[in-house]
Amino acid sequence: MKLIGPFSQILTLAHIDFKGSVKDNALEIVENGGVLVSKGHILKVGNFDTLRRENPLLEIEEITQKRVLIPGFVDCHTHTCFAGTRAMDFAERNAGTPYLEIAQKGGGIWSTVTATRNASQEELKTLNETRVNSFLKNGITTVEIKSGYGLSVEEEIKILNTINQLDTEADVVPTCLAAHIKPRDFDGSGVEYLEHLIENLLPKIKHLTNRIDIFTEKSAFGIEESTHYLQKVKEMGFQITVHADQFTAGSAQMAVKMGALSADHLEASTETDINVLANSETVAVALPGASIGLGEPFAPARKLLDAGACLAIASDYNPGSAPMGDLLTQASILATFQKLTNAEVFSGLTFRAAKALNLFDIGKISTGYKADFQAYPTDDYREILYHQGQLKPDIVWKMGYLI
Ligand SMILES: [Zn+2]
């Protein structure tokens, strides 16, 4: 058992609901705060001096300068397991070259699939560890990572194995996104590809992931074929999540109907979609990094919150559409364009994002939660979003241990 502190402020995020809008005056702020930690979990949060007086023999991890403590972030949507770069795509896209032409020049998702297939498991592991450990340094203590650049039984298993074997102190949640697009080298229709996954891939990966994702979009898989796939996937015992409403609406409603843990993207969601999400237990995940990477509108985060949805914010880190990979910067920018409060952004980066991963013991600084948190060199929590990602945490704890 040890006591960590004193912190100028602890932003606990306790007492905030999973759903709906939140004003900043709902934030619980413990000034001159301390956290009592035992066996990787939080025992008690309160005034540092009081906690020290109550526990005089305690080991103390002393914080000697002003710091604001907040929960570790949860990035609930990433594609960090890839090789290669799409810098050519980015340059061409910004120069006005159409997507099909970029693909003909050797860009597009297929170039990432090729580079990822050509990388050995060891190379992929090193690339991925570098990315995840830099996330961790920036306060992201839990990260979801999707497969989806393998697109064959063998290559998807290679990627899922890699994700499972990462040498990192961050918690990693693997998800299978073999239904990313129909691969060029698959001889058959989209429906046949999904059937192939159900028969030949999914039975072999139950020890590697309990989560299945699909990219539902005109250019990938339609709503009907996605519904059929997800039905089968659920019958096999997997949890589901959906890439929904990125360019065309309709799939977020399908995700809700199928009982998905989350519907992610939502840039194209209509009022009806927003209301369906708000009246469900499906987490609405905004991915501002993709909007910034593509120069597209942001997901309607404000409307989703006002309607009563559970809004999470994730990075979508991937080489094609969201190459930045800086969650705090992206969330800060989303806040300015969508008019989100500090309370809404921090909730969306922590316990609300954890709900999208079906995790309920992370994302708050509260008794019983994992001791995953991060400290910023300031004495006012509002400085964090104000600096739009330039103020980074300089101390990160995972299960009570310093990273
Ligand atoms: Zn994505």
Structure, explained:
By secondary structure, the protein is α/β, with parallel strands linked by helices. The protein folds into 2 domains: 2-72 and 363-402, Urease, subunit C, domain 1 (Roll), CATH 2.30.40.10; 74-356, TIM Barrel, CATH 3.20.20. Helix content is 36%, strand content 21%. It is globular, with a radius of gyration of 21 Å. The chain has helices at 48-54, 87-94, 99-104, 109-118, 121-137, 153-164, 190-201, 223-235, 251-257, 271-278, 288-294, 301-307, 327-338, 342-348, 351-356, 382-386, and strands at 2-11, 29-38, 41-47, 59-62, 68-71, 73-75, 140-146, 171-179, 211-215, 239-244, 262-265, 283-286, 311-313, 373-376, 395-398, 401-402. The chain binds zinc ion (ZN). Zinc ion binds next to loops. Zinc ion (ZN) binds next to loops.
Fold blueprint:
Elements: E1 2-11, E2 29-38, E3 41-47, H1 48-54, E4 59-62, E5 68-71, E6 73-75, H2 87-94, H3 99-104, H4 109-118, H5 121-137, E7 140-146, H6 153-164, E8 171-179, H7 190-201, E9 211-215, H8 223-235, E10 239-244, H9 251-257, E11 262-265, H10 271-278, E12 283-286, H11 288-294, H12 301-307, E13 311-313, H13 327-338, H14 342-348, H15 351-356, E14 373-376, H16 382-386, E15 395-398, E16 401-402
Parallel strand pairs: 1-4, 1-5, 6-7, 7-8, 8-9, 9-10, 10-11, 11-12, 12-13
Antiparallel strand pairs: 1-2, 2-3, 5-14, 14-15, 15-16
Helix pairs in contact: 5-6, 7-8, 10-12
Bound molecules: zinc ion.
Residues 77, 79, 243, 316 line the site of zinc ion.
